[in-house]
Amino acid sequence: MGAGHAHKLYRHGHSPVHALPPHCKLAAVFCFVLVVVSTPRTAIWAFALYAGLLAAVAVLARVPAGFLLRRLVFEVPFVAFAFLMPFVVPGAHISVLGVPLSVPGLWDAWNVLAKGTLGVTASVLLAATTELRALLLGLQRLRLPPLLVQIASFMIRYGDVISDEMRRMSVARRSRGFEATGVRHWGVLAKTAGALFIRSYERGERVHLAMVSRGYAGSMPVIDEVTASRAQWTAAAALPAAALAVCLLGWAL
Amino acid sequence: MHVPDGFINTPVCAAAGVVAAGAVAVALRRARRELDERTAPLAGLVAAFIFAVQMLNFPVAAGTSGHLLGGALAAILVGPGTGVLCVSVVLLLQGVLFADGGLTALGVNITDMGVVTVVVAYALFRGLVKLLPRKRRSVTVAAFVSALVSVPAAAVAFTAIYAVGGTTSVPLGQVFTAMVGVHVLIGVGEALITAATVSAVLAVRPDLVYGARGLTAPLKLRVNGELVDAPASPAPTPAPAPAHRSVRALWAAGLGAALVLAGLVSFYASASPDGLEKVAADQGIDKNVRDHASADSPLADYGVSGISDPRVSGGLAGVIGVGATVAVGTGVFRVVRRRSAGGDDDRPARSSEAPRETV
Amino acid sequence: MTMSFVPSLDVRGLAYAYPDGHQALFGVDLTVERGERVALLGPNGAGKTTLVLHLNGILTGGAGTVTVAGLPVGKEHLAEIRRKVGIVFQDPDDQLFMPTVREDVAFGPAAAGTRGEELERAVTRALERVGMAGYADRPPHHLSFGQRRRVAVATVLVMEPEILVLDEPSSNLDPASRRELADILRSLDVTVLMVTHDLPYALELCPRAVVLSEGVIAADGPTGQLLADEELMRRNRLELPFGFDPTARPTRNPAAH
């Protein structure tokens, strides 16, 4: 797995969606997903409308459909799981091409697939239109504990550095003719993991030294702040508000 | 095991979110105790390490491979508070940046994979380290057992969450059998790698393994090529002598066997309804259990024709068994925590440098 | 002012052992006057980095004293000491821990309470001094190694330190980056302690050198003279590059006098 510079989902751009403050987008996506998962599974049309809403956002953000679809691979394990459901769930069965399928199982599979896919798509849209740094500032603005934001920020700053070290160690192993092929090589790989931990920890100590050398005394100085205007909040709220209307209709009908 | 949106219903997701938030709050406080104001950089780097190590694939056989989950490893290497924080941050960023795991299911994922794994692993680890003789090997053994149990424990926790708030009607027994069955296998791999990794760290930097202790020697001055004692040398702290080694070893063997069996048997128990009671009554049963293992593959008839009554009861026995394991583990954890709050017995080796570091 | 008579750095009888029991320093004595540029030479494991970590009070608790511009290094003056002693660490990745160059340079003054316009001005000035003003909004890991090292110097310069301590400043730099860094260092008007085993670099930038060996100062004198002492060099595992003659007049060394 290559460790790219920026995170893999971000697509640089200047669309109105890119321009929204990160905390507005985070809140909007979260509320949208919350609305989606609260929708009754039988309201199939509602999920089609949700998909339409996300498609509209994608068009507005100029994120191509192919990009979105490729990113849906995160879902694969659960798709496999969903496909098992019609076979394992007890209840009334119908026969499709001679294969008995459970009706409640089919509903379950539909439910998990539809909601899961919409959730992933919304998250991918968020990640595709928001820079890493902005996401962290957004999380901080949404009152995530500062220490947690700092940990996340250090993790992002050094994720690539450590992945690179891991890759160099792997190259060094292979240069000496070692190729891990099975369980009996776990010892060597675990030693790599151990060495990687020591390097990471020692780097953490050095980073801490560099921080205290510049006057760090337990809390990060505030350098950047993100703010949002009322108009920006309103724009961001359009997605979850529309979804909420659909959801209420879904319950009412 | 990243749970997507829509798999667990909203109220239970919200409840799990509250649990996760509470656990993270406790972990934040505890991590500050473990690392002082080094928390942010060190926990961040360890989180980056966990993130990287999850990309390190361990080949199993014939082209398949698995990877480390890292909860137990984090707990043992950096302590439970920091461990919970690291795994939670990894899960948070996986959810927000990589769309891996649902946003509304974040609480479920953190509770399940972050909190349960780390707390169970650390409680078991501390319990075993206290019981086993003070040797490097004991730390490795304790790491193995705690990692082994922590993964199925997370599967059990997931099943429990599913039982309360699952949106699908897959029978509980089946979910339990599948989840715990698969995760016992994963747990074995996790345990082997965790133990090997911990022992690799232990061999090079024993002071970095939370719970291991370092020794300090008095300072010397080189005066005209001769070494003389420095005036302000701190007194060396001798390691406490291991008392009642034989009793401790007996306890260790008993506890270790009981916990391993509780973890393993919970899934073999589905084939043998009274397996767990037998284990509880007689610890010399492992031969028996192995017979079951070879006779009846746990997944052999999984998902074909629903689930027979003995399997359900076996599964339930397993739930109770592992639930008890978790409860015992939590109890040990509490005791250990209280002791650490009272005295400095539980302080890691690193803290010995604290007075020297005026940061 | 009496300050001009006070040395920038004064180390007396410093000894230290790490928590794992390894003793690195065995009684170091070193004085660096104001405005001096001193090279701290020594083989790997001589205790150079350990000594550096004592200069701003990151390591304490051994025997001996460290005084920076008349201020003893200790708990009571720690914030002041850390402003006065600017350490540039060997690996710029350790030093540049913030998401962007600008935030990284701003970290020190912001921690000291500087805000707004003033902070912005200080950051820009420090980046200009190392020729990196055009990179303020870049993430550090997008920069080349040489650029990262220069930004690392800027993160320290922005604090207006009394003494600049550089740990292996020329390591991993290509010849052009090495040259650029040397020009920057020469242009600065601060006391410099440069830890290195790049002997030509030491000769080029520092009129005075000290050799740290087995945790004590083994030699102290003009850099050219020390480097010409073959016996001393060999004893302390310091080797000049092939064909390098320390006694030859340097052709480009305007600031050495």
CATH architectural category of the domain at 10-212 and 336-352 in chain B: Orthogonal Bundle
Strand content of chain C: 15-25%
- Structural class of chain C comes to alpha/beta
Number of DSSP E strands of chain B: 4
Between the first and last Cα atoms of chain C, what is the distance in angstroms?
Answer: 25 Å
Going across the biggest sheet of chain C, name each strand in turn.
Answer: 6-7-8-3-9-10
By DSSP (H or I, 4+ residues per run), the number of helices of chain B equals 11
Largest sheet of chain B: 2 strands, antiparallel
Order of helices and strands of chain C: EEEHEEHEHHHHEHEHEEHH
Order of H and E elements of chain B: HHEEHHHHHEEHHHH
Largest sheet of chain C: 6 strands, mixed
CATH class of chain C: Alpha Beta
* Overall pLDDT confidence of chain C: 87
Organism (chain A): Streptomyces pyxinae
Transmembrane segments (chain A): 20-37, 43-61, 73-96, 116-136
Keywords (chain A): Cell membrane, Membrane, Transmembrane, Transmembrane helix
InterPro entries (chain A): ABC/ECF_trnsptr_transmembrane (IPR003339), ECF_CbiQ (IPR012809), ECF_transporter_component (IPR051611)
Write up this protein.
Chain C: Belongs to the ABC transporter superfamily. Chain C: One of its GO terms (molecular function) is ATP binding. Chain C: It is a peripheral membrane protein. Chain C: Residues 9-239 form the ABC transporter domain. The complex is a heterotrimer of chains A (253), B (359) and C (257). With 253 residues, chain A is mostly helical. Chain A is 69% helix and 3% strand. Chain A has ten helices and two strands, in the order αααααββααααα. Chain A has a two-stranded antiparallel sheet with strand order 1-2. The longest helix of chain A has 30 residues, at 146-175. Chain A is flat and about 65 Å long. The termini of chain A are far apart. The relative contact order of chain A is 0.17. Mean pLDDT of chain A is 83; it is low at 1-6. Chain B is mainly α and 359 residues long. In chain B, helix 3 (71-78) packs across helix 6 and helix 4 (80-98) runs antiparallel to helix 5 (106-131). Chain B has a domain at 10-212 and 336-352: Arp2/3 complex 21 kDa subunit ARPC3, CATH 1.10.1760.20. Chain C is α/β, with parallel strands linked by helices and 257 residues long. Chain C has one domain: Rossmann fold. Chain C has helices at residues 48-55, 78-84, 92-95, 101-111, 116-129, 145-157, 175-187, 199-205, 223-228, 230-235, and strands at 9-17, 23-32, 37-41, 63-68, 71-72, 85-88, 163-167, 191-196, 208-213, 216-222. A six-stranded mixed β-sheet of chain C has the order 6-7-8-3-9-10, with helices on both faces. Chains in contact: A-B, A-C, B-C.
